[in-house]
UniProtKB/TrEMBL annotation:
This is IS5 family transposase. GO terms for molecular function: DNA binding; transposase activity. One of its GO terms (biological process) is DNA transposition. Residues 209-350 form the Transposase IS4-like domain.
Length: 363
């Protein structure tokens, strides 16, 4: 017999949010890792807020929301908060009961400076790494490093001369047409009006320069987990300078190795590595020049293994751009974009950790 197309709601429901989430859903182990990390961040959260006044939205819920946004590639915080109205999975992950209304998207704008000032997302990354470290999942000797361009929330026509009049424009005031064709523009003479921290840069002679920042990642080679990250202005030396800074922060005095691509085959970088007791196992750059890496390094089997392992670092950037929030950021300024980059690195680890933890022997 055909059923009637009638929706009749009950006055009461006895289902919990947890009942809406399958027991084998991949977000379950991720949420457990995140909650374990958040529990040890109480002191940081207490320092973020005044002792008096109205209760804030719980910072733990705000952070879980940002993690969701990066995991599912939600294009904006407005869409995230809208989705919390009807998506039971998102509500469960964030920890928002059925009776509560989601916060307004402007809450993130009001709290972003607070998150940056107290380096909350960077501490979250460290607390997640602590769990991997406790299970012996991190290498303490072998690492890889690389950088990538992060497209800025700025357009080519926003770049105007630092001194002198802007280029001629026409069309609507809100979206004018700027005639900059044929003009010589460099970062020394021009700057973006919408994002002054962005720089025009390209990593390939075959591609045009784009307004961008530059992100850098240090990865351990055992399981491909991100152990450190940086965001800088884009320049020809930024990758090597950021890499040396991250390598200098590694704990322990034992000798370490670092794999990298041809962009790091430079005398200053190799010397900086050796000063930090790090053996540089960098790909040889022989394009119109002689490599700074010779047979004393390349003859070892460890060099070949390092060159194989360092290619995994490309998947970190691929995950963050294809599935996450880094294809083109929607915040401006190095501090704000740096928060997004650290969050993206944390989420890459969160995607990988459940499988690695499941492979560990119980007990």
């Amino acid at each position: 017999m055909r059923g009637a197309d009638v929706m009749q709601e009950s006055l009461f429901t006895y289902m919990r949010l947890d009942d809406f989430v399958p027991v084998d859903h991949p977000l379950r182990p991720i949420r457990e890792i995140v909650n374990t990390a958040l529990k040890v961040m109480d002191e940081t959260f207490d320092a973020m807020y005044a002792d008096l006044g109205r209760d804030s939205i719980a910072p733990e819920q705000l952070l879980r929301g940002l993690i969701l946004q990066a995991l599912y590639g939600l294009r904006s915080e407005r869409l995230l908060c809208e989705s919390l109205c009807y998506n039971m999975l998102y509500r469960w992950f964030v920890g928002l009961s059925l009776e509560k209304q989601p916060w307004d998207h402007s809450t993130y704008s009001k709290n972003r400076d607070r998150l940056i000032e107290h380096e909350v997302v960077r501490e979250l990354l460290e607390r997640v790494l602590d769990q991997a470290r406790a299970k012996g999942l991190l290498s303490s000797e072998h690492f890889s490093v690389d950088g990538t361009l992060i497209r800025a929330w700025a357009s080519h026509k926003s770049f105007v001369p630092k001194d002198g009049p802007p280029p001629p424009s026409s069309g609507p005031r809100g979206n004018p047409e700027v005639d900059f064709k044929g003009a010589s523009r460099t970062n020394a003479t021009h700057a973006s009006r919408s994002d002054p921290d962005a720089r025009l840069y390209t990593k390939s002679k075959k591609a045009g320069a784009i307004p961008c920042d530059m992100g850098h990642v240090l990865m351990e080679n055992r399981n491909g987990l991100v152990v450190n990250e940086r965001l800088t202005q884009a320049s020809g030396s930024a990758e090597r300078e950021a890499a040396l800074e991250m390598l200098g922060g590694l704990p322990g005095k034992a000798r370490k190795t670092v794999g990298a691509d041809k962009a790091y085959d430079a005398e200053a970088f190799l010397a900086g590595c050796r000063e930090r007791n790090v053996t540089p196992q960098v790909a040889q750059n022989t394009s119109g020049r002689s490599s700074r890496i010779d047979g004393r390094t390349t003859r070892h089997s460890g060099y070949r293994l390092s060159q194989l392992a360092r290619k995994l670092i490309e998947t970190v950037f691929g995950d963050a751009k294809q599935h996450g929030i880094l294809r083109q950021v929607k915040l401006r300024g190095l501090k704000k974009v740096s928060l997004l980059f650290t969050l993206a690195a944390t989420v890459v680890n969160l995607r990988r950790l459940p499988r690695l933890l499941a492979m560990q022997p119980s007990g």
